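As described in the Methods, two query proteins were run sequentially through the folding procedure within a single session, without resetting any intermediate state between them. The first query and its resulting structure tokens are shown here.
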Amino acid sequence: MNSVIKLEIQSRENVRRYLLAYHGLLNEPIFDGKIGIIDFVAKVGCIQFDPIDICGRNADLTLQSRVENYEKTLLEELLYKDRFLIDYFDKNLSILRTSDWPLMSRRREQLRKESRSSEVVDKHQQRIMDYLSEHDYVCSKDIDLKERADWYWSASSSARVVLETLYFRGDLVVHHKKGTIKYYAKRENVFNDDLFDQSYSDDEHDDLFLLRRIQAVGILWDKPSDALLGIMDLKSERRKNAFKRLLNSQKVVQVQVEEIIQTFVIPTASLQLFQSPPQVRKVRTEFIAPLDNLLWDRKLISAIFDFNYKWEIYEPQHRRKFGYYVLPVLQNDAFIGRIEIINQKKTKTLLVQRFWQEKPINMESLKQCIQRFAQFNQTKHIAYADGWIIPMSDGSSGAH
């Protein structure tokens, strides 16, 4: 058995710069265009998908903060034209490399054994497959099934339930989307035949996906974490054993951070970057997606960055501290506040509703980021609400 690699105590500043450099969020962008999207997804394994679009969907928001010259059409082409990427489950519903399809075999196996309204699926699935024998793709509106059925989020049309079940099981894949409407096709008609399911032992599965999550964030600790969502059956004991195996095999390195009792691990492949993170040499401001890989473990971010973030979209309005869809604002190597921005599509206006300033800021860099964000959202105008800057609690503007 190999010995565990342990590093000396690191400063939080160094760890912050490592993490941001790891994600391509420090100094100049390191990802560019389509190749940049592919490279980033390959590095982190997956990016989380969410359909809500207030100022961009989560996957697009994640990419726009890292990929220079990013346009939403580039992701669509990689998914539905080039087929380098695919919609499927990893950490919840995600976007991942098509070549990673076999890794999700255990999830599909489980979904074939158990799903809601399985009697409805058994009754109508052949009708769907017969339709796809004569058509390239299908959406729920193409199948006339008027009855509704129990589904995970709420009662839905039987057509949707059957299509999504077949998609979950891997019999169908997303062929393309029009807005929020998904069009499905038979998997074998879209992807190569070499994307077969694979079989893993429990230990192999746990190690594979735990390492995948560590690589997705750049650093993790052996604690319950939202970063581990989607890893089937990874309870406390199995998680601890998987961490031990990854350490003993030297696939990860153990690190200690000043003023934090809990130890962390980083991918061994990132050891050089961790030991020599770049200095901040260029002012850079980015708006970070609510479900960004960097934020998957918010307690970890709080410990390292001293920044507490909660996505309040599911909170009742009277309980929200900030707003419905608020983005963290990153400048240089710190989270300096949070911002509420609305894409008013009818008037092609990007409305900057509120910016909560929490640390000193470079205002020029912030406004340049807003301008890039307007271009990303394809708006023609930028509007600032009255009193859009909410200053730091000490009353100073902090701008420089």
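Immediately afterward, the second query was submitted; its sequence and tokens are:
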Amino acid sequence: MKKILLFILIFNLSYTFAQSDFDLFVESKIFEDKGKIDTSIYLISHAISISPEQIYLLHRGQLYFKSKKYNEALNDFILLKDSNNNEIDYKIACCYAALDNFDETDIWLRKYLNLNNKLPSNVIKSEAIFSKFKTTTQWTEIWNKNWYSNYENYISEMCYLYSKGLYSEIFDVVDSALKYFPEKDELWLWRAKAFKFGNNPKEEMISLDKALKINSTRVDILLIRANLLRKDGKSKKAIVDYSSALEIQPWNVKLFKERGISKIESYDYNGAIVDFLKYFSYDINDGSALYYAGHAAFLKGDYKKAIELFTNAIKLESNLVECYFERGRCYLDLLNYETAFTDFCMAIDLKPNNGEIFCFRGLSYFGLKNKLGACHDWQKAKTLEYPKAEEYLLRFCSDLK
């Protein structure tokens, strides 16, 4: 047993070191999303050992910061202090504050406040990490100076209104700000948020379009617009936005899943399968990625491929009811009624109040020449308000009492 465990450990280490720095970075991001911060740090550290890219150091610094390992985070952030990233100065100030080094906190917070596009003052003043620093005269002296431009004051006011849930009041502030700063993409984003609160998707879209015309590299805005386009049934246009976002952030592989879903909605099933399997190549424990790939194969009529993908998804996540249900439908279409019946039973065990599953199990019963079982399931499906069941009851069960 010990030999087997040793072999697995050596294999995993060999696999990790054989990966490219980019692959390690992507997997680090995936493990971060799953809340496995130590594993994420381990992976990004190996990426840095291969190639100490600034984006890798920033990611590791943020992970250390999230883990409250402030000395380690500070070491990474200091290496990036000349990278022209406003966020770095603020993070350095936060680290020093957490380490009770208030002289350095004062220096770096002032550096940050001298920059443009900084956090609103109310956000900084409410930051818990500065709680001890707030008791010093240095903190008071910092805020004796007005660090903020008129534009930044508008942003600060909108952030405050948003935090208080006063969404309707944001309209007036953003409209006033846009009179003076019409070329600020952030203001157009706030305008879009305001119209989202007001349930006006048309004006929300106009605002997002304007923001992206000013700054086409804003991935956050691209993704908001992509989601809005999908809600409006314009999945092909959403695909363009997801693709643009991936070009800007190729490490953001979650977007392959989002784009894959949009491709399904656009009937590009082959493209969808490629995207889901691309994502799965980075997260080999995500059964849902295989489910979606199987779903695309099912929709295009490639039942054997769909069955293969659903089966592999179930091996990873045995509670994926959609996999059992759709694999059952594949077997049903292939006239393999017995196996279809088994899958529908599994799906019902996981989701016992779904009329559609009962209706399809009724079809497998019927294929097995068990009319009584079929009619019982169709009656159950009708009770659960699945509309198709009524048709089967009238066609095949009218002679049964």
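The chain is about 75% helix and 0% strand. We note this only descriptively and draw no conclusion about the first query from it.
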